[in-house]
Amino acid sequence: MSFHPPLSILALAAGAAALSIPIWRVVARRALAAPRHALHGAIAQVVVAIPASGVGSIACRMRGRRIVLPARDDEGGAIAMGRAVIVVSLERGTARVTPFVLTGPEGPPEVP
Questions:
Q1: What is the pLDDT of residue 108?
Q2: The pLDDT of residue 98
Q3: Which of 34, 69, 89, 101 could join 38 via S-S bond, C-beta 3.0 to 4.6 A?
Q4: For 62, phi and psi rounded to 5 degrees?
Q5: Which helix H or strand E contains 40, and what residues bound it?
Q6: Neighbouring residues of 8: CB distance < 8 A, sequence distance ≥ 6
Q7: Distance from C-alpha of 31 to C-alpha of 41, rounded to nearest angstrom
Q8: What is the rounded average pLDDT for all residues in the chain?
Q9: How many Å apart are CA 52 and CA 69, to the nearest integer?
Q10: Nearest to 38, CA basis, from 102, 89, 101
């Protein structure tokens, strides 16, 4: 059996590339995965309106990245798109939120 350096290098590179893609996906998912308590109390913005007793979507910043999650109103009401909300809990990947109410003259907060 003869040794062919160009073929050996090519085979090694192809094997490393094939293994690195699945490993990178696992690492990326774990880095972005948030424990339930990490979102508790976070201010987010409704990006897809939440219908009464239904599911919409919210966006917020976590670890410097914008994340979008399915969300429902904690009391089962409707929440309009663009409204600021507070994350009350995270259950099976869906955020339970309540509208953010600011009681001062500053108006609603700027949401990412």
A1: 58
A2: 95
A3: 34
A4: -145, 130
A5: none
A6: none
A7: 20
A8: 76
A9: 17
A10: 89
